[in-house]
Amino acid sequence: MKIAYIGLGKMGKNMVLRLLEQGMDLVVWNRSPEPVKEVVAAGATSASNFADLLKALPERRVIWLMLTAGQVTDQIINELLPHLKSGDLLIDGGNSFYKDTIRRSSELAKKGISYLDIGVSGGPGGARSGACMMAGGNKADYDYVLPVIKAACSQDAYGCVGGSGAGHFVKMIHNGIEYGMMQAIAEGAAVLEKSPLKPDLAEVFRIYNNRTVIESRLINWAREAFEENPKLENISSVIAHTGEGEWTVAAAKELGIAVPIIEESFQVRVNSSQEPENFRNKVVSILRNKFGHHKVTKD
Fold first, then answer.
1. How far, in Å, CA of 288 to CA of 217, rounded?
2. Is 244 a catalytic site residue?
3. What is the pLDDT of residue 240?
4. How confident is the model at residue 299 (pLDDT cuts 50, 70, 90)?
5. Of residues 171, 193, 246, 290, which has the active-site annotation?
6. Of 55, 79, 85, 178, which is the active-site residue?
7. Is the whole model's pTM more than 0.85, yes or no?
């Protein structure tokens, strides 16, 4: 299958490199030229504008967007529209707000253009070695691009979870759960670190990650972090946060569901800029760095 790919950031570039290795035929576009050069060297074809990008595709044209949520996604879709036609399929693989996704899908459907929303988990490392994908939209559209999804994902790490917006909604809730899990790990680590017993945190988390109830990728990343930097020196206590945690809290309130753990975890991130030296917050920061390659060192 030959598809177009727009957006070669940390996630997008790594996903393209994986798809190329899996035998996919890709034509790409990105604002900055550096990642374009890298994926072209790996076998992709580049286009300098959207008209040429779409001309390079066979019928039915599939365009995968891997963009920042919000205004950027709307802007790129609006720039693509003059070149799109009925039957084309857009895929939004970014962390878009699910209500924006439903709106975009409805607007594009009036022009006969299909729209799939795919929440992608696993961070840049997962995008390179095999991601997890949660799709929403028309099942026939999902089935049509399933070869691409399978190529981008680890074995069985994909599925269609409902209609338009469901993929991004499920990914949003995933990230809210992630907030709470990381917060619990960080709080436990902080208590261990403060204890007069002074246990070796790297060894503790190595043990935690072998057949205990809390064994997980997050626990393993904590182990790695404590092996590399036991005191988390030069790690910032300020925890960056994107929209998904806040959106999860808002959606829960709309539905009348109390989510105290997720809500408090989000609030910790909001307040983290007021705590310049907080070991608990440093643990969350380093975990985010481990899977998402987010900057966490002090300036």
1. 12
2. no
3. 85
4. low
5. 171
6. 178
7. yes
